[in-house]
Amino acid sequence: MSLAGLGLTTEQERVYRELLRTRPGIASHAGGAGRGDAGAGSVLTELRVLGLVDENLTAVPPAAAVDLLVRRRITEAQQQFEGLAAAWEALRELTEEQHTGRPAGLLEQLSNGPETTRRIGALLTDHPGEFAALRTDALYDESRHPHVRHGRLLMAGLRSRTLFPVHTLEDPRQVAHASRLHAFGELHRVTTEAVWPLTLVNRSVAFVPADLSDPEAGVLQIRRTGVVRILAEVFDGIWNRARDLDELPVSPVEQRVLRALTRYDTDDSAARALNVSVRKFRGHVADLMDRLGARTRFQAALLAKERNWL
After folding, report:
1. How many distinct structural domains can be found in the chain?
2. Alpha carbon distances (Å) from 259 to 58, 75, 168, 170, 172
3. Alpha-carbon Rg of the chain, whole angstroms?
4. How far apart are CA 172 and CA 147, in angstroms?
5. Using CA atoms in the order 182, 186, 188, 194, what is the torsion angle rounded to 10 degrees?
6. 112 by DSSP, 3-state: which?
7. Which of 9, 67, 95, 155 is most buried when burial is the number of CB atoms within 10 A of its CB?
8. Residue that finishes a domain, picked among 83, 104, 125
């Protein structure tokens, strides 16, 4: 079987095979293999660069040689795929320019939310690959009904993941909204980490607030590959540490009770903040302490933080 499929030339393969049949440790390998001219010397140099021949002109074992050649071909294939990915990115930009009538830049400021929604929708309609979002605002909005169109994209093969703070589920409407999208196949997770608004489309375009302190500042659309890749890795990290909706160790109400333990000095003030009776608040605290195996409320708060319940 020829090694041409692994990237060797006919002459490189011939020399390597001949060296395999020659006993190692002899400095006259090149001459014994009939390669005493300058051309043969260049082939040996090429084999050394490939790692198939060591400094003593001894051929490496076949298993090592094939492994090196396969890895080299894989690296070359990855580079080719990256080139193809760049071509698809160019196609997406050209498609957007066709839709908008404007050049698609690496960084563009959008004026408002509807424009951002339209851009995201256009990108996903053309290429329903992957949608990922960090949300800090309310998920429930009767004026948008995003789940209807999103559902069609999910059925078309879109992979969609949405991540938001666990305290969002304190509003029952939020849970209902997430459940509707779950019915279409969208994945939701909740986190106790601090998050900021972020939307990623096909891991190639990112949308972030232009100014976190000014909601009216608009949204930045980012196409710069390095920046988008970093943002995607940040999202993946938070996603991996987050929990699915049906895997929450404590309910949203219990999380509020745990937070109250860290913020208020008395049961009366904590109960007032949660708008529950002192008796009900103490009941929640007792249940949580029992589940945590805590002897004191201070210890309960510490254990809850260690288990990422807070």
Report:
1. 3
2. 69, 50, 14, 13, 19
3. 30
4. 17
5. -140
6. coil
7. 95
8. 104
CA-wise closest residue to 23 among 14, 15, 12, 32: 32
Domain with 50, as residue range(s), is 1-104
pLDDT tens digits along 178-222: 777 766 678 888 887 888 899 999 999 999 998 888 878 889 999
pLDDT digits (tens, 9 = 90+) for 38-55: 556 788 888 888 888 887
43 and 122 in a single domain? The answer is no
Task: Please tell me the distance from the alpha carbon of residue 187 to that of residue 181, in angstroms, as a whole number.
Answer: 8
pTM score: 0.51
DSSP-assigned states of every residue in 282-310: HHHHHHHHHHHT-SSHHHHHHHHHHTT--
HSE (side-chain half, CA atoms, 13 Å) at 29: 24
Task: Looking at the structure, tell me whether residues 236 and 278 fall in a common domain.
Answer: no
SS (H, E, C) 55-75: CCCCECCHHHHHHHHHHHHHH
